[in-house]
Each structure stands twice: as C-alpha cells, then as structure tokens.
Write a structure and sequence with these properties.
Elements (H helix, E strand, L loop, with lengths): L1 E7 L4 H12 L3 H9 L4 E6 L2 H13 L3 E6 L10 E2 L9 E2 L9 E2 L3 E24 L1 H6 L6 E23 L6 E4 L16 H15 L4 E6 L12 H23 L1
C-alpha cells in the first residue's frame, strides 16, 4: 500500500482544493475535510506505486510539498525500541539503565511529540433483582424476587503522549511513552506526575540534541484512509513528517 501525503500547501486552501482533487481523483469536499485535519495530510492511498509517484510529481508542479512511501516500510510504534527508564548519558540515551545500547544524540534527526489514543471494549456483568409476584403468592411471600444478570458492553478510551525519536541514519526510530516510563533518571528534576516528567524529559533531550527538529503537530490526531484510526494512523503521519523534515534539513546543508 502506497501513501501520498501533503506536507505543505502552496496557496490558500480554497484555491488548492480543486487542483489537488483532480490529481488524486477525489472531490474538493473530501480534500477540504482531509486538509482541515492538519498537515501532514494523507490525500491518497493506493496499491499502485507508479501512480503514487506520478501524483507526487503532479502535486509538486502545483507548488505543493508531497511525499509518498510504502506502508510496508513504516515501523509500527509497537515494534520500536521503547525507552523504559530515563538514562541520559554523556553521548546518548539508553532504553533502560545499565544497557549498552545507545541512541547517540548526534544521530537524532527529529523529535515528534504526539498523542496516542487506544480504544478498548469493556465487558461487565450487571446483576439485577426482579420482583416475582407469582412466586410470592405460591410461596406465601417467602420468595419475592429473583436475581438475573446481563452483559453490558462499553468502550473506554485511554490517551497518553508519546515521543517519536527519529534517526539520521535511517534505522528504526525509538519511542518514549508518557505513562510507560520510569523517570527516576531525572534526579532532582523528578516531579510527582508523569505529565510533568514527560515534559521535562523532552526539554532535557532537546538540550542534548540541539540540532534535532522538534514538532508537536501530531498532538492532534488525524484520520488516514485505509489505515486504522488511532496509534496506527499516528505512526504513518510520524514517518511522513520525519521524511519531510529530513529533506528540509538536507536542503539547508546544500
């Protein structure tokens, strides 16, 4: 599956709608809905890699910035190296205290702050007591009610912030999750809540890797057609955003 996304629109949204829609084979209304979600915005999902490349070229002719990638090349966050314990070393960060594996600060391309939302189905049994008039008469009032149970299903959404840390060398990114990390390595800066500690960890990492781009656009979720909503869609947008930032950084060095 090949994904095409806009990362920058050359002209005001209203002027861009019809030309973009014509290129991707959609309606101006649908393109507006996609762009209203923010950039990067996935405008096309196709199994045809050649078509995806043509669409990117045509969008570039209109002055827009667009990227295409094969979804198979995207590392899902569930398979990324997760930072479990904060351990800021002199040259890099480790996924846990005492581990030799390090992510060099000099190799950090970008730091992307995002929101992960996970929806789970909760099943519970509810017990109820119901009046049984017939049984009450038959037993002289000894049995007045009966207990029944029924299954109740509901959905529960859990949200937490996550930090994608992408490499310059193209290897799989690492990830830091707000409520799945031990922040004891912050030392005197350790705060009572995970929210505060997560923010402090970001500040520390940015100070240690000043060359890395920082972006918070993925704090707002956005749908990606053909991809499950939630964390899976955020993973896709994070990779697209990282690719865009990598190209921008390359142009600045030229």
């Amino acid at each position: 599956m090949h994904i095409v996304a806009l990362t920058e629109v050359a002209q005001p949204t209203d002027a861009a709608l019809a030309p973009v829609a014509a290129v991707v084979g959609s309606s101006a209304y649908d393109v507006r809905l996609i762009l209203n979600g923010g950039l990067p915005a996935v405008v096309l999902v196709t199994d045809d890699g050649a078509r995806a490349a043509r669409v990117v070229a045509e969008l570039a002719l209109q002055g827009h910035r667009a990227f295409t990638c094969d979804r198979a090349s995207i590392t899902p966050s569930a398979k990324m190296t997760a930072i479990r314990v904060i351990d800021f070393g002199p040259d890099g960060i480790a996924p846990a205290e005492g581990l030799r594996e390090r992510f060099p600060y000099s190799d950090i391309l970008c730091i992307l702050r995002a929101t992960h939302a996970k929806t789970t189905e909760v099943v519970s049994q509810v017990k109820e007591r119901k009046l049984r008039p017939g049984m009450a008469i038959a037993t002289g009032g000894l049995i007045m009610t009966k207990t029944t149970s029924r299954e109740v299903r509901s959905t529960e959404e859990q949200r937490q912030q996550a930090l994608y840390i992408f490499r310059r060398n193209g290897q799989a990114p690492w990830i830091l999750r707000e409520r799945e990390t031990n922040y004891s390595g912050l030392g005197s800066k350790l705060a009572p809540s995970a929210v505060q500690n997560f923010a402090t960890a970001i500040q520390e990492l940015r100070a240690l890797a000043p060359q890395a781009a920082y972006d918070e656009r993925l704090l707002k979720s956005r749908p990606v057609r053909g991809v499950n909503a939630g964390i899976e869609a955020v993973d896709v947008c994070a990779h697209i955003l990282a690719a865009d930032l990598a190209e921008r950084a390359m142009r600045l060095r030229e």
